[in-house]
Design a protein that fits this description.
Oligomer: single chain
Strand content: 5-15%
Largest sheet: 6 strands, antiparallel
Structural class: alpha+beta
Shape: globular
Bound molecules: adenosine monophosphate, magnesium ion
């Protein structure tokens, strides 16, 4: 358990908008956090409010956009029912274990039950120093905040589980990074902020009672049906393995590279979290790395399934004392579940690839896997843009191969051979043409957050106070599957020399 020496009474404002917070984490997990207050920013202004998400949360977007709403979204005023707190967690960062990380610049404000009955965390990122800040300033810069907003909404547009931004707020102060930058704060919504690293924090302290409370809480929150199973903690491990296998398969399907898959950035809920140096692959190469700090390529595109399994193994280790009093028995049980990751991922990935290729689920798995792998091999060999390489298969499915062939400039032979196999496989399936087209259209986005477009949008916002490019890109990414002539520029890759040296930086 961690001590709570810094408790401060929340500042309550009578005229703040009402939030029906129901704070289960604060209530049930005393000792897992430090009650703390956001630092009021000097001159907050609303940069972007996610009205659709506000509505889903049962909040009134107009009230949020008004001055008293902004006061809450900026952390200047804490509403009556909020119990802001900094969560404790640990984590393996690039393979090395840090026993104490925690919310160093984030706070959980409270939990809401949304319109669909789902419990959602409302949290700040960039709300000032906490007892977990170590050497950091507890702040965030506008560029990374808008980046997290944009990529999160893009993932949501793809229907990939993700945390989302409710608002981006400029703080009116300057944060010092390599250069001085405008400061900002993100209001983040998550189905919880439980991480593999949360379990590691208590496992590292050999605190079995705390682990059990945490696991029980996780089960109640994410897998309530497991509470009465014979082996609830083993089943929790299985559920997390399955969710992460499904999630990573979805990432791979849209070319997403998380960039910093440390165990503190892996959720128990199965949502994508912490968009730092992430980016989408363009010219297809599984070794692609964009992050400036990933020197070894640990978190390269093609390594993500293996890293997920490595992280899940760290998660399983934390659960061992709960699985069995005999450690050897516990290890055997955990190992059996961890071994399901690979087949589970393969099955999910095959399903993603079948949708991308417009193939039914009933075909021969090995043959379909080979067909998909060979197509990826072609994209790699001919340095084809991943997104366009799949999107143009839609035209080919309708009989027009020219746009696809244009991507393979001058190298038609291997593609022709593959297309013959694909057409033969497609002809042998029961999927009606329109169903097939719709499946392919929904599995192969026309628009992804292309690196040069993201950079241009953030640069305009940060350097010129111009949010128009950000808004435009966001609008495009909210409807990524229907191709629109007026948005063609957003479907096109940057010049290869621009992408080849593209680097992303941690949002710190
Ligand atoms: P991240 O790289 O954002 O996943 O953060 C890793 C750890 O560093 C977490 O414990 C964060 O709270 C902490 N951290 C990152 N940036 C800052 C900052 N500017 N101030 C304080 N802590 C930070
Ligand atoms: Mg993190």
């Amino acid at each position: 358990m961690i001590a709570d020496p810094h408790f401060q009474q929340a500042k309550v404002a009578d005229d703040a908008p009402q939030f029906d917070f129901d704070n289960s984490y604060a209530r049930e997990l005393g000792g897992f956090y430090v009650s703390w207050q956001p630092v009021p920013p000097p001159a907050p202004s609303l940069v972007r409010l996610n009205r659709e998400l506000a509505d889903e949360l049962g909040l009134d977007a107009d009230v949020l956009a008004a001055p008293q709403g902004l006061a809450v979204l900026s952390g200047a005023v804490v509403p009556a029912q909020a119990q802001p707190l900094a969560q404790a967690y640990a984590g393996h960062q690039f393979g090395g274990f840090s026993p104490q990380l925690g919310d160093g610049r984030a706070l959980l404000l409270g939990e809401l039950i949304d319109r669909h009955g789902r419990r959602r965390d409302i949290a700040f990122k960039g709300s000032g120093r906490t007892p977990f800040s170590r050497g950091g300033d507890g702040k965030a810069a506008l560029g990374p905040v808008l980046r997290e907003y944009l990529i999160g909404e893009a993932m949501h547009g793809f229907s990939i589980p993700t945390t989302r931004a409710l608002a981006a707020v400029a703080t009116g102060e300057t944060v010092q990074r390599e250069t001085p930058l405008p400061g900002a704060l993100l209001v983040r919504v998550a189905s919880s902020h439980l991480r593999v690293g949360t379990f590691q924090f208590f496992a590292a302290r050999d605190d079995e009672a705390a682990l059990r409370r945490l696991a029980d809480y996780a089960i109640a929150r994410h897998d309530p049906q497991l509470a009465h199973s014979d082996q609830p903690y083993l089943e929790l491990l299985r559920a997390v393995v399955e969710r992460q296998a499904a999630l990573i398969a979805r990432w791979m399907g849209v070319g997403f590279i998380h960039g910093v898959m440390n165990t503190d950035n892996m959720t128990i809920s199965g949502e994508t979290i912490d968009y730092g140096p992430c980016a989408f692959i363009e010219t297809y190469d599984p070794r692609t790395v964009f992050s400036s700090i990933d020197h070894q390529g640990r978190y390269a595109y093609g390594n993500q399934p293996g890293i997920a399994q490595w992280n899940l193994t760290r998660f399983a280790e934390t659960l061992l004392p709960l699985l069995h009093t005999d450690n050897e028995r516990a290890v055997a049980m955990a190992t059996e579940v961890l071994q399901t990751f690979a087949p589970c991922f393969s099955a999910r990935h095959l399903s993603v690839m079948r949708d991308k290729l417009g193939l039914d689920e009933g075909g021969d798995a090995e043959a379909d896997q080979a067909l998909a792998a060979d197509y990826l091999g072609l994209l790699h060999e001919h340095r084809v843009d991943f997104t366009l390489g799949f999107r143009r298969l839609l035209d080919a499915a309708s009989g027009d191969e020219a746009p696809l062939r244009a991507l393979f400039a001058g190298n038609g032979e291997p593609l022709s051979a593959w297309l013959l196999r694909w057409h033969a496989r497609s002809a042998a399936q029961p999927l009606p043409a329109d169903v097939r087209r719709r499946t392919m259209a929904r599995a192969n986005p026309a628009y992804i957050p292309r690196n040069h477009q993201v950079e241009a949008a953030l640069a305009a916002a940060v350097n010129d106070d111009d949010l128009a490019p950000f808004e435009r890109l966001l609008a495009v990414l909210q409807r990524p599957f229907d191709e629109r002539a007026e948005d063609d520029a957003f479907a096109q890759p940057a010049a290869p020399e621009q992408t080849a040296c593209y680097r992303t930086f941690c949002g710190t």
